[in-house]
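User: Design a sequence. Structure:
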């Protein structure tokens, strides 16, 4: 028995020793083969081949990291999808249970998905100051991050595809509950999640594809913006000739870039463009090649603790009515299709520098200096460099200069007025439980050059103009019905209205003098349900007289009442009528009828009636003449929102 045990141990030792030796032999053979392979490759491959292998290896590693990031994103989505229905998980080590919790790698995207934030998009600050972390720091960027391009998995299309229809409905970025939905009036990009980041800057994309069918009772040969003051009188053959036009020019694209330098400060840059521009070779014969144009392009700085707001760039004027505060993308614009808004609406969209202050986001004060231009009207055609009729007591009239044709980077086919200083606007606003209310003052200056009778050199003249205005937006007992309105009255304010009544005219010495004017609108906006918006607006713009008596006893300037206007009602007759008043009525609505992972679609219908009245004249026989004309427009519009 003892010998058997000894033999068993000896045999077992021999087997183990043999196994070890065999393993060493196999390992040595592997090392030998590997060494031989390496030496063979080193001999056979040249230096360029080694470089190619290194590049290929780096690309494979980058691809592996990208795939790993995709796996992590998919797992995160699955965890989110089943978070509400999955059973509690048991901690085996401690014998306790805890609910399954999804991981969130994109804090900024989820912050913007917060319904409370979406309901008040005016000023929102991220919950953290750190740059947005992407799924992969090397996907299109560098291995260590930096300023590389990074997709945000929380805002990717695959995440949206994973959401349920109920989630899509409750998280729609299109909001028709306000009196001026930015999805219609602008692009509502604030409600969208970031698409990607560049360093610490998140980037959002917005916009829509627009297809409008436009019908007008008079042929104005106009695109999707109606020149309200240009409806012809009966002397024009276009007066009774209707116009039908299809246009996609109002298709719009926007980009919003945001960063948080600190917990209470925010930087934003916003660019918005459509295709309503027209180049010198643009036509609609075979290829409608209409050009992109700058609608808005500005950056803002907000310091929440100080209540400080700074804007620089091209944006809607501070004179525009606002739905809340005085901050951009909160303008109270009518929810209409026509790109020229409605008669009576106060607005411009120009370069400006604006500084504002808020107190608890309830009371606001802002000052804006904005790019000025002056329009000129006269009882006869007067171009810059022409001589006006002589005033009473003078033998000859003054030669006037008031504009130049566009130079570098400006439109050579139009004129630009002499601008001594920017327009200045000071506005105060209050947001209360009864609505938004605001008042503002506008200051303008007009400059011209004149060679006065008997003189041989020009003399510079500068005149002051401006006005006061107010605006309001208030619910009528319920949030389903809003009343909105604005008004502006003063001298030389015509360019702030869509009818474009002239700002100025000439006096007897050749000086630009502002024309007295008033404009205003009132609108009623209703929301029968969350997918439908209905509206009706009334607006008016009117001008007063500014004239002088000539050496021949006739009146000259704007608003004269001794012109021969007999031809205004006769086809091919001569009609030099000057617009006194233009009134309008508009009714329409929008229907948000389709929404899903593929985006949203809306349909709009709008009707506008305008009535234009001229200053009185005569028929050449001492009888009074009151020229008037009217026009109708109908818009049928479809819009596709790929980002909503």
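Assistant: Done.
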């Amino acid at each position: 028995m003892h010998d058997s045990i000894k033999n068993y141990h000896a045999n077992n030792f021999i087997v183990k020793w043999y196994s070890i030796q065999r393993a060493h032999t196999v390992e040595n053979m592997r090392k030998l083969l590997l060494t031989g392979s390496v030496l063979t490759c080193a001999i056979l491959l040249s230096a360029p081949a080694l470089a190619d292998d290194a590049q290929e290896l780096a690309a494979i590693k980058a691809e592996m990291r990208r795939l790993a990031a995709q796996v992590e994103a998919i797992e995160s989505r699955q965890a989110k999808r089943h978070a509400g229905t999955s059973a509690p998980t048991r901690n085996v080590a401690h014998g306790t249970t805890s609910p399954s919790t999804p991981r969130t790698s994109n804090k900024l995207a989820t912050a913007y998905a917060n319904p409370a934030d979406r309901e008040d998009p005016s000023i929102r600050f991220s919950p953290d100051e750190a740059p947005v972390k992407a799924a992969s720091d090397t996907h299109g960027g560098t291995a260590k991050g930096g300023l590389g391009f990074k997709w945000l998995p929380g805002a990717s299309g695959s995440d949206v595809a994973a959401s349920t229809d109920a989630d899509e409905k409750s998280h729609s970025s299109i909001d028709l509950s306000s009196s001026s939905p930015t999805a219609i009036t602008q692009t509502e990009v604030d409600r969208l999640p970031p698409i990607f980041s560049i360093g610490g800057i998140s980037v959002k994309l917005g916009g829509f594809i627009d297809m409008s069918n436009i019908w007008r009772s008079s042929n104005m040969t106009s695109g999707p913006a109606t020149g309200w003051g240009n409806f012809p009188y009966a002397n024009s053959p276009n007066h009774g000739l209707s116009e039908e036009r299809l246009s996609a020019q109002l298709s719009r694209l926007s980009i919003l870039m945001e960063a948080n330098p600190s917990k209470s400060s925010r930087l934003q840059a916003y660019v918005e463009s459509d295709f309503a521009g027209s180049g010198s070779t643009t036509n609609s014969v075979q290829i409608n090649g209409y050009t992109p144009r700058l609608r808005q392009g500005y950056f803002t700085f907000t310091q929440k603790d100080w209540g400080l707001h700074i804007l620089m760039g091209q944006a809607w004027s501070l004179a525009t009515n606002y739905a809340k505060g005085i901050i951009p993308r909160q303008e109270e614009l009518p929810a209409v299709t026509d790109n020229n808004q409605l008669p009576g609406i106060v607005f411009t969209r120009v370069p400006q520098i604006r500084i504002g202050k808020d107190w608890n986001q309830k009371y606001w004060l802002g000052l804006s200096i904005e790019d000025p231009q002056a329009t000129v009207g006269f009882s006869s055609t007067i171009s810059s460099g022409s001589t006006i009729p002589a005033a009473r007591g003078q033998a000859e009239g003054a030669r006037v200069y008031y504009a130049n044709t566009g130079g570098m980077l400006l439109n050579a086919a139009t004129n630009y007025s002499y601008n001594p200083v920017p327009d200045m606007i000071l506005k105060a606003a209050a947001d209360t439980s009864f609505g938004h209310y605001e008042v503002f003052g506008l200051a303008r200056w007009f400059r011209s050059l004149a060679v006065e009778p008997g003189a041989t050199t020009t003399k510079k003249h500068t005149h002051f103009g401006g006005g006061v205005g107010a605006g309001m937006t208030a619910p009528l007992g319920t949030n389903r019905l809003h009343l909105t309105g604005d008004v502006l009255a003063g001298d030389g304010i015509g360019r702030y209205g869509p009818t474009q009544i002239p700002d100025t005219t000439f006096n007897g010495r050749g000086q630009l003098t502002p024309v007295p004017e008033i404009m205003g609108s009132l609108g009623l906006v209703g929301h029968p349900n969350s997918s439908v918006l209905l509206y009706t607006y009334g607006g008016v713009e009117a001008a007063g007289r500014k004239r002088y008596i000539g050496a021949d006893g006739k009146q000259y300037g704007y608003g004269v009442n001794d012109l021969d206007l007999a031809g205004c009602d006769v086809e091919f007759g001569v009609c030099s009528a000057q617009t006194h008043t233009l009134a309008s009525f508009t009714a329409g609505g929008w229907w948000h009828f389709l929404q899903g992972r593929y985006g949203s679609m809306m349909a709009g219908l709008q009707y506008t009636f305008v009535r234009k009245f001229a200053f009185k004249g005569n028929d050449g026989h001492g009888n009074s003449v009151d020229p008037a004309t009217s026009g109708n427009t109908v818009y049928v519009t479809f819009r596709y929102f790929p980002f909503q």
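The chain has two domains: 20-44+52-72, 206-281+288-641. The domain at 206-281+288-641 is CATH 2.40.160.10 (Porin).
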